[in-house]
Amino acid sequence: MSREHQHLERAAVVDRLRLTPLFGGLPNDQLDRLADMGEIVDLAVGEALITEGDEADALYVVLEGEMDVTKRAGRSTIPVARVGPGALQGELAALEGGRRLASVTAATPAEVLRIPVGAIRQLLDAGPDVALAVIRTAVSRLRSMESLFREREKLAGLGTLAAGLAHELNNPAAAAMRAIEQLGGAVKQAEEQPRPAPPPRPPEGSAPPRSALERADRIDAIAAMTGEAAAATSLVDAGWTPEALAELPTDVLPWLAADASVHLLLGELRLAIGRMSEIVAAVKGYAYLDQAPVQRVDVREGLEQTLVIMRHRLRDGVEVIRDFEDDLPEIEVRGSELNQVWTNLIDNAIDAMESRGTLTLRAAADPDGDGVRISICDSGPGIPDDVRQRLFEPFYTTKPPGKGTGLGLHITHNVIGSHGGRIEVDSEPGRTCFEITLPAHPPS
Question: Where would I find the beta strands (DSSP E) of 146-237?
């Protein structure tokens, strides 16, 4: 490329920069310097300019064409914005020296000016006009992204809730259907057998098997008498022992087995329906349906409801320890928001422990006030000091791209603050505790 061509190319870049809202007010010497520090990058349709999660080494000014800004959340790609000439891209991560918060791809053939991180520092040192322009753009972009992803975080919370409910309700529903299907056959079998009068019952005081081995031995012994393992299982679960059955006429055993099976299935059905009712009640309480925005609540109930909804994530290997004070005062809060706080913190704790460890929940009266103090602790690896200092920043996350928006703890911090409370973190290897203090009444 000839020197003349290079000079003309820079002049064209300066002309385009002069038309942008960000740099249009700068004097010619700073525009010339900006063009000298940058390099032109041409992009074809679909070509990536910025990839979420990569280290930031530059910011970009769109000179021509349009760019799509997107962010990953789970398996989804969320469109954030479409930008055109004059737009500044990648400035947040570049100024911070961190990783990219979003991806930027060419929606049309595009031309951008790439300004390396080192040149950015020189540019900001050149004068307050440039620095203020960049800061205004960065703050505006941050507010816009935060607003969008707050809504996304709510949807993600609903998705987590829906997935948990589907999982939790599926098991008792399947058990209920299975019991209903088998109940018809058991009733028919009982009706076909001669009914003794009066029907014998297991002897009073007969104890259930003390262990699985004893239960298996008892089933084997009774199966030798009835000729059916299924019938023997029903009789054992109904409380019969081989010794008690040996005292009865042999022709009574088929009816006893059928009767025991009916009662056993009715018990399973009652248990399954009760489990579904428990889940539905927990969801209603969790969401504070049909209630005023601010309620007087017992935080222990919210914690328990959250555990019910998240039980599918706890059962793989998480031991839950509850340490709740008996005489805990009620507090005035926006209940559904507070339950979202418990969900965020418990979900993060489970992730930190990789679904195996000890989750400890404590709730007690605040010794320094009239409110309550709640601790949610996990036995995970702990939080490094450099990470802990940034936990509540918007969009900051240690999870890989697509696994989190970086807004969960930020929203948690804001909810606690809006209630006049505070949240603190204490962490070391093998133990991390989030301690929340809430007053009895939120600020007016």
Answer: none
Cα 174–Cα 313–Cα 304 angle in degrees, nearest 5: 90
Residue 397 token pair: 């996350």
Residue span of the structural domain in which 371 resides? 294-438
Residue 52: inside a domain, yes or no?
yes
Q: Which of 265, 289, 287, 269 is nearest to 277 (CA)?
A: 269
Number of domains in the chain: 3
pLDDT band of 371, cuts 50, 70, 90: very high
Q: Is the pTM of this model over 0.90?
A: no
Peptide bond before 198: cis, by omega within 30 degrees of 0? yes
Ramachandran region, residue 354 (left: φ > 0; alpha: ψ -120 to 50; beta: rest): left
Q: Which residues contact 57 (CB under 8 A, 6 or more apart)?
A: 94, 116, 117
| Residue 69 domain flag | yes
Question: Could you identify the residue written with the tokens 């209603």?
Answer: 284
The sign of the torsion formed by the CA atoms of 350, 70, 336, 440 equals: positive
What's the pLDDT tens digit per position in 294-324?
888 899 988 998 888 788 788 778 999 999 9
